[in-house]
Design brief:
The chain is an alpha/beta fold. Strands 1, 2, 3, 4, 5, 15, 16 and 17 form an eight-stranded mixed sheet that branches. It has a four-stranded parallel sheet with strand order 11-12-13-14, covered by helices on one side. The chain has helices at 2-15, 109-121, 136-145, 183-194, 218-230, 242-251, 267-276, 284-292, 303-306, 313-317, 320-328, 332-351, 372-384, 388-403; strands at residues 30-38, 47-55, 58-63, 74-77, 82-85, 87-92, 97-98, 101-102, 124-129, 153-156, 201-205, 235-239, 255-256, 279-280, 420-423, 437-442, 445-448. It folds into two domains: 30-85 and 412-459, Roll (Urease, subunit C, domain 1); 87-403, Alpha-Beta Barrel (TIM Barrel), CATH 3.20.20.
């Protein structure tokens, strides 16, 4: 990985003084939103007829009483509107997809910034990009975290850990990946990665439905987990098999970054996960997208979905050739069964009190649309057995907890950042009403009129 180290250093030097001011001009501004129904992200029922007082980008007060309006304050009437925290995705990817192709050649600053803005337009305020950056991504993450660029805030595992000739496939754009073959190589690579302060370490531990002959050796991922923990960094695993999940949890894994999908999770593993505080990101929409286009899903022609697609993807997924390819794929039956187990296991883990956070794997392939995937994930969580308010809590408060940003984000409470969605219908009645998104606010400023305002020609996408 010496070449990556050299590239990273060049990129960081070149961009160190690129941006010098923040995007949002909200300093010393008081804004009062009146007559709103607030869904605060804690799981509490909606609070109607509320006023939210915002000062300098943060929530100062939420009240139903009379308000003394200070001179110069901006008042916005939210009658008929529902406010909820911005969504947070703890498993996403940026930069590698453009049009119908996933490739490392697509990873440019412009492409990453475009996709972060699309997440924001869909009400996603922060994402954890799971280990597929190019060296340029390190400086983008720093600019994003400093508030120097618009769009969802970027957190990142930077460069993940995979297997030579196997997962994740280089042909799909996953080129800047550590692929250690021994525990000693793994320890060296973790030591190098730690210099760039990843938010988590990402490992791929499966053989992709048996399509690769090899998967990560137990001694290698054990070394990665051990060395990451020495440096205070949590480890998240791309996992599929129940047997792998058992071994990973025993080895000290912190985050299961996909559903367990080849069987029903047992009580013994659930108890071990609870004892070790292992978090779970189900990525249900990944499994749904794998086969959804065999039959036209209900949302196929909804502009809320269509506007999330890269050019050419709609034509691809609706073509007879694509549908026939899915029908003939030997893994299609397995992918359908995977979603069934994913729904069962999410319900069991959530009811057991495991920390479940929202993630979708959006942006890893062209068919997993950035922004729409996160709203579909809410619907699938409800399908699994969560209530709409529980699903919203998973996608806001729980996800902020996993990213350790819950002092700032994830709920609408005094002291938190005034970053929220404005909806036209009540998502606590039907979680699909998050798709009635008419505005997005970040740090007390409206930053988007929602995805239907995106300038795209949906009819030809």
């Amino acid at each position: 990985m010496k070449a990556i180290t050299t590239l990273v250093n060049k990129v960081l030097i070149a961009t160190a003084i690129f941006l010098t001011s923040t995007i949002n001009g909200n300093a010393q501004q008081t804004t009062i939103l009146t007559n709103a129904t607030i869904i605060d992200g804690t799981g509490k029922p909606p609070q109607p007829n509320m006023a939210m007082i915002i000062e300098d980008g943060r929530i100062e007060k939420i009240t139903r009483g009379k308000i003394a309006v200070p001179d110069g304050a901006v008042q916005v009437d939210m009658t008929g509107k529902y406010l909820m925290p911005q969504l947070i995705s703890c498993h996403s990817h940026v930069g590698n997809v453009r049009d119908t192709v996933a490739s490392s050649a697509n990873y440019t600053r412009a492409n990453v910034l475009r996709q972060l803005k699309q997440y924001e337009d869909y009400g996603v305020g922060a994402i954890l990009s799971m280990g597929t950056e190019q060296p340029l991504g390190i400086s983008i993450r720093e600019d994003s975290r400093a508030g120097l660029i618009p769009g969802a805030t970027l957190y990142s595992a930077i460069f993940g850990f995979g297997v030579k000739g196997a997962m994740p496939p280089e042909a799909a754009g996953f080129s800047a990946i550590y692929r250690p073959g021994t525990p000693e190589e793994a320890a060296h690579d973790v030591d190098e990665l730690a210099t760039w302060h990843p938010d988590v370490v990402k490992i791929w531990v499966d053989n992709y439905y048996g399509q690769f002959q090899t998967s990560m050796k137990e001694e290698v991922y054990t070394a990665i987990i051990r060395e990451a923990h020495k440096r205070g960094i949590r480890v998240a695993a791309h996992v599929y098999h129940l047997a792998d999940a058992r071994k990973l949890v025993a080895a000290g894994l912190d985050i299961i970054a996909h559903s367990i999908r080849d069987g029903e999770i047992d009580d013994a593993l659930i108890e071990e996960m609870k004892a070790k505080h292992v978090a779970y990101i189900p990525t249900l929409s990944l499994d749904d997208f794998a086969t959804a286009y065999l039959d036209d899903p209900a949302w196929l022609n909804d502009p809320f979905f269509r506007n999330s697609l890269e050019p050419g993807v709609y034509r691809m997924i609706t073509s007879p050739a694509y549908k026939e390819k899915l029908r003939k794929s030997p893994v299609t039956p397995q992918e359908k069964e995977a979603l069934r187990y994913a729904l069962i296991n999410l319900r069991k883990l959530y009811k057991a009190g495991i920390l479940v956070a929202m993630g979708t794997d959006s942006g890893a392939t062209p068919i997993r649309a950035q922004g729409f995937s996160e709203h579909l994930e809410l619907e699938l969580m409800v399908q699994a057995g969560l209530t709409p308010l529980e699903a919203i809590k998973v996608a806001t408060f729980n996800s902020a907890r996993l990213l350790r940003i819950d002092a700032d984000r994830g709920t609408l409470e005094p002291g938190r950042r005034a970053s929220f969605l404005v909806l036209d219908k009540d998502p606590s009645v039907d979680v699909r009403n998050t798709r009635t998104l008419s505005a997005v606010w970040s740090d007390g400023v409206k930053v988007s009129d929602g995805p239907l305002s995106i300038n795209k020609t949906t009819a030809t996408r």
